[in-house]
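Posting this for the archive.
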Amino acid sequence: MFDLAEQRSEDELRELLVHFIYDIAYMQLMVKTQDRRVVISESVVAPSSFRKVLADVLYRHFAFGSVLFAPTSLFALFPLGSETGLVVDCGYSETQIMAVYNGNPLLGTFSAVGAGSMVVHKQIEDMLKATGQVPNEETIDEATLEDIKVRACVAVAPDSGVQAPTVDYRFPSGHVVQLDHALRTAPVEVLFASSEFDFEEFDSSIPQAILETLKQCPVDTRVELAKSIVLCGGTAMIPGFKGRLVAELLKLLEQPQYETLKGAETSRTKYTVTLSAAGGVRLDSVVVASDRNRVLDELMRKLGDCQITEATMEVDGGLVKVVLESPEDRDADNLKGGVQMSQRSYQTDTVVKETTPHFSGVGKSIAIYDPPFAANYLSWLGAAIFASLDCLADRSIDRNAYLKSPQLADWSSAATIEAITAPAKQERAQPSLRTTSVPIDRPRAWGLGSLAETKTPSLV
């Protein structure tokens, strides 16, 4: 494959893409492109010029039926059966981070740092030359550096006391070098502690970037995102990477600049009230559903003027169980006496008050998914799952629609959304016997819809 960062003319890029897609479609898959739909998993900061040339090659040169462009971070959640997560894509040249909440990527939270395999490789080469095992004038090729990283490097905290044993590594030329604890662990540390290293492209560590991204998220989404961190990309497969990342995140949360993000330990009081119908009338879910709002309002009024963070009501064995949770402490006896309704009355059987510790921030919510799939193909697998769904046609841009108006939707721009979807809206407004796949007409910031809407199979 080729490097997108390399400057090329439009004609050169087109020629490379034609040969690349020809090899995939005709030499490897051997399919008829007119009958196929294409799903492109891309970075949200992919060059628009590249997207334009790629779409032109797919639609005009190979005549694919439809194409869907969507961000990698969204596809990474599909194999997990989740709609919410903080996706950390650890790649070769950089690490990209973006929050996805309820199936919608939050574009304002996107961040990218130059912490990737490239700086790990550079550190390995510099350390081998510094120890005299490789001559300074010799250049180690990327394939060898990648092999050293995969076979020998591990992520270990400097103060953990764990010592990685020394191993031998044989270069393709036959030259053998010894990789001790420092050579196996220090190159990976560049991803976690940027202040100790000096790379022009490296401005922040991965843990720092994650916490800064969480600070950009809406306050009421931070806890849920912090406990739903998703790692993808080959760099995240380094042994010990996940544990080292969690440890560094917890350590950074103790610093003053993240005090508001960490939160403070408080308490929550839970009131569990059991009600029964006066006169021995047996209650069912239909009856209780009709009274739910009025019963909850009356109990909250009895509890006093306080904040209620959770209020649930359910039927269990003919009895009604109400749970109220509040950060404030109130007298549970206020909930006694029952609830009087216009058609029926509820009497209070029991009231249980329980106070539990509660953490208001993300300090005790940091958690990383442990999927049964390798991190380096997690996003690809998500794209493959979405490609198998019937709703793909509704989310893709049809070839006929593209040829009429050769534009690609930039879902962060309302202007392009309106320009692309206007013809589709007009066509749907007119009676027609045929169906056409058109771009989505909802400005959902790259969103492909909720998992419930698309009926994505849960694999966990």
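The chain has four domains: 10-81+375-454, 85-114+202-262, 117-190, 266-359. The chain is about 35% helix and 20% strand.
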